[in-house]
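Fold this sequence, please.
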Amino acid sequence: MAAMIERPCPVCDGRETRPHWRKGDVTLVQCRACGMVFANPVPAALASGEHYEGLAAGLYLTADKLAADYAPVRFERELKLFRQFCPQGKVLDVGCSTGGFLFQLEARWPGDYERLGTDVVGPALDYATSRGVTVLHEGFLEHDFGGGQFDALTMWAVAEHLIDPSKFLAKAAVMLRPGGHCFVLVPNLKSLAMRLLGSRYRYVMVEHVNYFSAATLRRLVARVPDLEIVALRSTHFNPVVLWQDWRGQGRRVSDAERVALLKRTTSWKQRGGPLRWGYRAVETALGAVGLADNLVAVMEKK
């Protein structure tokens, strides 16, 4: 039996909860005080980062996953949003994985950014280094970066994995210069996929310990007085995932299947044409009403 740890609500530290969903080894509860949905208890290996080291060979470093991570379309939404708020400067990507986002920053806008990445998965960082991305082999909370030195800090698909995300935001606020920006992208608890599929959705999984709505994400940021949300949007949509998970009725989707689908969808996005235009129209419509797959918040340091 894996060691498990209990934790309070990651948004308000509340201890009173009600059952939400149960899926295999995942138990989700909802905070009675603030409405946040989160996993409790959680495997201790998630808190230490040990769990993610075990995913490197079978997920992060597979040829198809790396090709998708470094495809120009992979971070196109994030890059467009990032550029709006940070046209140049010093950037830290927390949870940078194999370095795809930071690589694209330099590829698209050479010389505009001083880039640094950090993660808990050593082999992924080694690959990022091989692609010319500067990385730090030390945990974000443990390393002393000094105060007020970054113009931007990004956490793309990171906060849903964190046992205590408020600590990460508090440290981000210290590290940002006044007027600097923090970008956070997380799965959307109120997405169309979540509403239709519930716990059958493949991203209700062991690695995801926090399930944010727009309201609970705002409450989390409100705990950090020096950060103010200046943009909050719903983005991304994958109809193939919705269809497959509807048919699969909640069966576990293997890492190999996830990577295979990522390869296919990356190829479709790169082709363009009517199929891509139709997809974009649907994604835009869902985003406008808060039903797209993810939430992305942009925070400014006061």
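The two ends are 46 Å apart (CA to CA). The chain has one domain: 48-301.
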